Amino acid sequence: MVGGAALLKDLRVDPRVTVARLAAWVGAQPGGTVVFGTAYLGFDGNRAHTSRGPIDAQRVIVCVGHDLDHLYPALAEEHEVQRCALQMARTADPGAVVTPAVLTATSLLRYPAFAETTAAAALRTRMEEDRPDLLDIDANVMFTQRPDGTLLIGDSHHTGRTVDPFLDEAVTETLRAETARVLGVDGLRIIERWQGVYASSPLRPYLVADPEERLSVRVVTSGVGMTIAHGLARRHFPS
Ligand SMILES: Cc1cc2nc3c(=O)[nH]c(=O)nc-3n(C[C@H](O)[C@H](O)[C@H](O)COP(=O)(O)OP(=O)(O)OC[C@H]3O[C@@H](n4cnc5c(N)ncnc54)[C@H](O)[C@@H]3O)c2cc1C
Q: Does pLDDT of 111 surpass 90?
């Protein structure tokens, strides 16, 4: 390791607990209601139609992620929205305390703030020579430790209109071995594997469309939705 960056405003969010807490928080606000198990079907200008019947609506904001192509296929096609599938894993406690969230060289090739620097070209050349296995799976090797000591490690990327559910064990092994190498530990043991999916577009990192009066569509079309969602909401819907 030859350098680092102090990202002092960085915040770690654990979806395993945060999503439920956010929903509970919204439900606890005056006038706030969260309705689960209910599909949005469309807007007629006055009412949002759902699988549980219509809801009077002054304004509708549709945020359905990669399922946009089910609801508004022409919009999804216009913005070239696809599905990006990622392989993730959780390991047993490596026996080391890892306080920060750790990004590695592959991360610097993915996020525009790093990837648009002039140094990124030299880094890519070096990675092509040294670690084609990581580039082959479009890896972003990063990890973070949960309070119970287990490590969340990710991730690979595979983009398509639909994605297979099958997890390639060779991909998991590449991610596991690289994490162990960075940490300098032997025998990192996988205890969970899963696939995540997000919306992806080669055109832009997020989709902004207002197809009708009082109907807005917002979809983050890159892997930064947890980071930018609140800023995006504040910028577009300030009140
Ligand atoms: C493995 C993985 C790791 C990630 N890591 C990071 C990270 O480190 N940092 C970061 O910033 N981002 C990360 N992301 C990206 C981030 O999770 C996404 O960008 C974000 O979840 C997008 O939020 P969203 O609300 O637009 O869509 P989603 O989270 O996809 O939510 C859309 C919701 O709409 C629901 N829905 C679909 N159709 C309908 C319908 N007709 N009616 C009602 N509901 C419907 C879906 O069921 C879903 O619950 C990661 C994503 C994955 C998969």
A: no
Spacing, Cα 225 to ligand 1 middle (Å): 7
CA of 57 to the centre of ligand 1 (A): 23
Q: Are 82 and 219 in contact (CB under 8 A)?
A: no
* 3-class secondary-structure state, position 207: strand
> Other CB atoms closer than 10 Å to residue 137's CB: what's the count?
20
Quick check: 129 pLDDT over 90? Answer: yes
> What distance in Å separates the CA atoms of residue 152 and residue 91, rounded to the nearest whole number?
7
CB 193 within 8 A of CB 87: yes
Would the pLDDT of 5 be above 80? no
Largest CA distance in the chain: 60
Mean pLDDT for the stretch of residues 70-92: 97
Q: What is the pTM of this model?
A: 0.94
Instruction: Indicate whether residue 39 lines ligand 1 (CB < 6 A).
Output: yes
